[in-house]
Design a protein that fits this description.
about 525 residues; alpha+beta; D-Maltodextrin-Binding Protein, domain 2; Dipeptide-binding Protein, domain 1; Dipeptide-binding Protein, domain 3; five-stranded mixed sheet; 20 strands; globular
């Protein structure tokens, strides 16, 4: 009897083990069909629309913007890697880190990682290896370690939205040791070399842990089983490149894919017929724009740039491409800006007669101007470009399309204008117009497509540093007046962005291009 009892116990333990193992295996392998894969996975250097889908969940910021509260506005911040934070002075923010947070390589997160992330050499200095960091943090005077779990950020002037900066683009925390392994004595280029190596070998703290990738095919991740917010509700996540929308839809219907992106409005009724499919849409805090290279001979005269803008019937564009379910913002601003938003501002208007007059006054000679774009990168990008060509032709401006494969080609020599999108990365002008067109922007500093007037750049500094709300508002409105007159770009619309997923996937799209796989917001039934 004793032997039988022992054997039964062995069988019972084995069955429990098998049951537990089986339960662990029941977490889903999620496959997401995307129009284009990330171009890299370095969180501050790769910040395009297709990049942040992944990097947002590979890495964590100190502070998290909660989009379920107040639309993700200024009152919506909550701790992420930070346990708490406080203003020590108008120019000093002290951040206390969570203890026990681990990077994907097992290292514990400490203040050293935070200090390195925001170091002048990597992100914030005039010669930083990642120049985009200065768009957000050029005013950082010092980032200092107070103790292993406390960091102090010191700015050279007050910044009312600094906490928001720590919750957005380029502020994702990286692993110091991963970078430092590339440092060698007398090697002044070690950070450039590290950046190249790390781009496709990311080590963060987020719920997505990088596994492997194959160019133009897929990027694969496993769950970070020790994630500090809890075990992720998936086993793996794979982003699969599927450029054609029809193929993405067919794959979702067949069960090959769990989520698909970039759905045009006309396909929403088609997908809604499937009983096991949910379609979710959000109008993005992102504007599709046409960027003008004011250094190009054809576009040096601002009157021609103004003419190109006045020729655009945005209402017709919105109805034709988005079935009127999106909108065109009234200037470079959003209602999410709160007290900085001006609802009475007319913004970019349609006036074909004025467009014709300005084109003539500019001396435009009828020579075609090239519009560069990447097919399949922006939803309805090709369609909008074709409509724009007809609108410009109607006022006597000839434009030809130049189709290219990537932004390196787009920004190569000879650029006249190109299709782009501008994300409002903070609910404030400092994370919108100042980031992309201000004195520290790549538009002015690196690409040199436009040099802001002296007054524009002064006003941008007021918006960045003033503590009086009325003073900031007045400066921002004056900035917009100059910007719309100079016309270094024109806004088309904020697109309706739609996803479709199997109903077993429980999640919500965000008004930015982030896809959030954290266990409190991404579940699989």
């Amino acid at each position: 009897m004793g032997r039988l009892s022992f054997c039964l116990r062995i069988v019972a333990v084995t069955l429990v083990s098998i049951t537990v193992a089986h339960a662990a295996e029941t977490r889903a392998d999620i496959v997401i069909a995307v129009n284009e894969l990330p171009r890299g996975l370095e969180p501050a250097d790769d910040t395009g629309n297709v990049d942040v889908r992944a990097t947002y969940s590979i890495f964590d910021t100190l502070i998290r913007r909660d989009f379920s509260v107040n639309g993700g506005g200024n009152a919506s911040l909550k701790p992420l890697l930070a346990e708490s934070w406080k203003r020590v002075s108008p120019t000093t923010l002290e951040v206390r880190l969570r203890k026990g947070v681990r990077f994907h390589n097992g290292d514990e997160l400490t203040a050293d990682d935070v200090v390195f992330t925001f170091s002048p050499e990597r992100l914030t200095g005039p010669d930083a290896v990642i120049p985009a960091g200065r768009e957000y943090f050029a005013h950082l005077k010092q980032v200092e370690k107070a103790d292993p779990y406390t960091v102090r950020f010191v700015t050279d002037a007050p910044d009312l939205v600094f906490e928001q900066r720590l919750a957005t683009y380029t502020a994702w925390i990286v692993n110091r040791r991963q970078w430092m392994q590339f440092q060698k004595p007398d090697d002044k280029q070690w950070m450039q070399r590290a950046l190249r190596e790390i781009r496709w070998n990311p080590i963060g703290t987020g719920p997505l842990k990088f596994r492997d990738w194959k160019k133009d095919q897929y990027v694969a991740f496993t769950a970070n089983e020790t994630y500090f917010l809890g075990r992720p509700n998936f086993r793996t996540v794979t982003l699969r490149e599927v450029p054609e929308l029809a193929t993405r839809i067919a794959g979702l219907a067949s069960g090959e894919f769990d989520i698909i992106v970039d759905i045009t409005p006309d396909q929403i009724p088609v997908l809604s017929r499937y009983k096991d499919v949910d379609v979710q849409s959000v109008v993005l805090e992102n504007s599709h724009v046409i960027l003008f290279n004011t250094s190009a001979p054809a576009l040096k005269d601002k009157r021609l740039r103004q003419a190109l803008s006045y020729a655009i019937d945005r209402k017709k564009l919105n109805e034709a491409l988005w079935q009127g379910k999106n909108y065109s913002p009234n200037g470079y601003q959003l209602p999410a800006f709160g007290s900085m938003y001006n609802p009475a501002r007319p913004g970019y208007t349609y006036d074909p007669e004025r467009a014709r007059r300005l084109a003539k006054e500019s001396g435009y000679d009828g020579k075609p101007i090239a519009l560069r774009l990447i097919p399949n990168y922006y939803l309805n990008g090709m369609e909008s470009a074709q409509v724009l060509l007809e609108m410009w032709k109607a006022v006597g401006i000839n434009v030809r399309l130049e189709l290219l494969e990537n932004f390196k080609q787009v920004r190569a020599q000879g650029l006249e204008m190109h299709q782009w999108s501008n994300t409002y990365r903070l609910p404030d002008p400092t994370g919108a117009i100042n980031v992309l067109y201000g004195p520290n922007s790549q538009t002015q500093r690196s690409w040199k497509y436009w040099t802001g007037t002296e007054q524009f750049n002064k006003l941008a500094n007021v918006v960045d540093t003033a503590t009086d709300v009325k003073e900031r508002y007045k400066a921002f409105q004056a900035m917009l007046d100059i910007f719309e007159d100079e016309m270094p770009m024109t806004i088309l619309y904020n697109p309706l962005y739609s996803y479709a997923s199997k109903k077993r996937v429980d999640w919500k799209p965000l008004p930015l291009f982030y896809m959030d796989f954290r266990p409190d917001v991404f579940r699989v039934r």
